[in-house]
Amino acid sequence: MKNVIGLRDYVISNYEQGESPLCAQDVENLRNWRHDSDIFEKIHGLTDEGYLEMVGIGSRLREAFRELLARIEEGSYRFRSAYGHWMEDGVSGFITGLTNETLIIEESNATYDILAPYEACPKYRHDVKRNPLTYIEVSKYESSNEYTAMKHGLERRIGVKNGLSNSNITALYDLCRYTWSGVQNKPSPWCALFSPEDLKVLEYVGDLRHYYRNGYGTPMNIIFGRIPMADLFKTFSENREGFGKKLTTYFSHATMMDMVLSALGLSKDETPLTGKYRDPKRKWKTSTLSAFGVNLMAVLNRCTVNNLTEYKVVFYFNEDLLTSICNGGICSWQEFEEKFKPFVDANIQFCFTVLDKNTKKDKVSSVCKLVHTDYFIETMKVPVLIVLIVLIGYGESLYCYWNTGCAYKFFSSKTPYNSIRGDIRDSIVNLKGCEPISIWGLIRHGKIQPNAVQGKNMQNAITIRNDVVTSYDKGHSSLCAQDVENLKNWKLDNKFLQEHQLTEEGYQEMYGIGKRIKETFPQLLNDIKDGSYTIRPAHGHWIEKSAKAFVEGLGNRRVKLENSKENDVMAPYLTCGKYQKDVQNNPDIFAEADKYISTSDYLAAKDRIQRRSGIEYDLTDVNVTALYDLCRHTLSGFDNKVSPWCALFTSDDLQVLEYIHDLRYYYKNGYGTAQNGKFGGIPLEDLLMSFQRAKEGNGKKITAYFTHATMIDMIYMSLGLFKDAPLTAANRDRDRKWRTSKISAFGVNLVAVLNRCSKNGSDDYNVVFYLNEEPMRSICEEGVCSWQEFEDKLKPFVNTTTDFCEFQSEPYK
Questions:
Q1: Rounded-to-integer distance, Cα 487 and Cα 464, Å
Q2: What are phi and psi of 201, to 5 degrees?
Q3: pLDDT tens-digit series, residues 780-804
Q4: Tag placement on the chain: N or C end, fewer CB within 10 Å?
């Protein structure tokens, strides 16, 4: 891995020369990546993340089995790891999570242990681990068309001209997966070198290795897997007799886990895995079977039925109920005995059979040339563990927010910009023979703190957290333990109550837009002088700070903001008396949204939230809204950080709540009120005039206005964009075009670029529109408007006035 880090400079250089199709943001992330020396210097060292994973497993076991594990006395437990200091460190982490007491860890046996019996088997080392024939299917797959296509695609993305070796690819893949954090949900920039399909191909290489070295591909692996299962049967049998241990915990390698799964007949495919075909629906997938920290747990339950004592065994794999060993995941003692008693006689005597060394040598020599160097790295973040627990009672697997993998990320106008944006550096429409001469943009401010009313309701709703935790402790909540723990550990940021303050994330959103526009149009924007630009915010300190962040992203300190104006082009409704009277201060404007909260669609969502939280009193609509605001104001799109408050909602609930705000904005800002379209025409007239002046040689290089979501929505209406049949409470159309999460999010922006082109010896002009840094194809065909098309579309807005406003009012916030 260390050797291929030098490829980063090569990748960046190729991208800058236009020889790599990687996205600009991915290249930027790769450039900013700093390596952790521990990866290369602490061989087989347990990482901080690995330690925390072990602490977490121990902590969750303690909480799940409080009565049994409240006190762990000497003689009532066993902790032992396979040989290796990283294993022993993992045990220490597990015990830290399990209890505050000092517990004894049995010493591992370097020569033979039931946790790694294969290590003491010469036959396994010779016939399997060190035998090139074990990896023959891997070699075949690395010569397949599918692998070769992956390799060539990777070379094209990196811009490599001389070809990558398989060892190069493996090292880059290892950089991707070793520098990824599961605890922080933080992806590695090295993974950007691979497409999702590439990663599936490389995953299969690992699956083939494990399948033949540790799993079903080699029969002796099943024998090794039976040995710890014999210990399981013996341990539970002793507990039935009344002299067993409360907790027996073994820590081992992925190798041992693969062997145990094979012995139990789990994740077995109907046909063997081969290098000829990668079955995307295969059961043997090491990403889930052999991951860091993977664990198999068995729980012995003593039950009393009609004054008779019965014993039942429940199995868990990675802390989820395992239903494939016995029906429903629960084994009667008889079923357990029938399945596991045959393992009692398992041993490794076969390991010491004398074999024909010359025959072996000939076989080994005949295939050496086919073998790619074994790249499996046994440096582990955490060891694999097998846990055998004795207790009474069991739980069920639930939908959990914390590990959904793809949490719902659309929250109406409070959606983070990073959740919906493109990247204009990649999506720029390059037209042959054309050069950009003017840019015009209307940009919504970045993420801000809630207003005073929202903030007060949210602050009041925070107390509901205690009720949720209490209801969970009583068993009344259907939330998952990790979600409750995350909610319990959440801390209120005092800045949260600073009304309408631009957040750090909001600043970064604005800075990023300016930076990417500058990098996309460097020749046009490298030298911006007085008179060559207009950058002006609407009324509001958060708007002004957003504009300043944008300017910093442009990287030109000489650029100054214009002061906001009354009745300004980017917010004419602010001083319109008729708008304030008929819309802004008219409660009837939200009639459809109010009707919607009486529909079965909303009431069903409210009931789900109530049952999920488990609290004993009824949640009000104000409570639900405040909890929703806590969810969407405390997540982050910038570092992909979810909010523990969102665990109170399912994805369906969030879509219902999103629709309430779509209705509100539709009638307040959009098609639901006719006068909104008139306001939208005012900035569009400014756009036409701005480009007309640029076309005549006396325009601005860049004009950027910073405003509210209200103005953006009004422009959509004027241009006829995102128009549906009228939105109503009676029908929530899931395929509607008016989705404020995507069109009115924080930082949403409409940008137009005027290009001058040389055509038949004369100048020609066209305009390209972008929404959120992606080309807009709905205004003109393919997103490119000829000057005539552009003029025809915007000329109707010339001389748009606000005479209909009746009277001028004070700007509102």
A1: 11
A2: -65, -45
A3: 987 899 999 999 999 999 999 888 9
A4: C
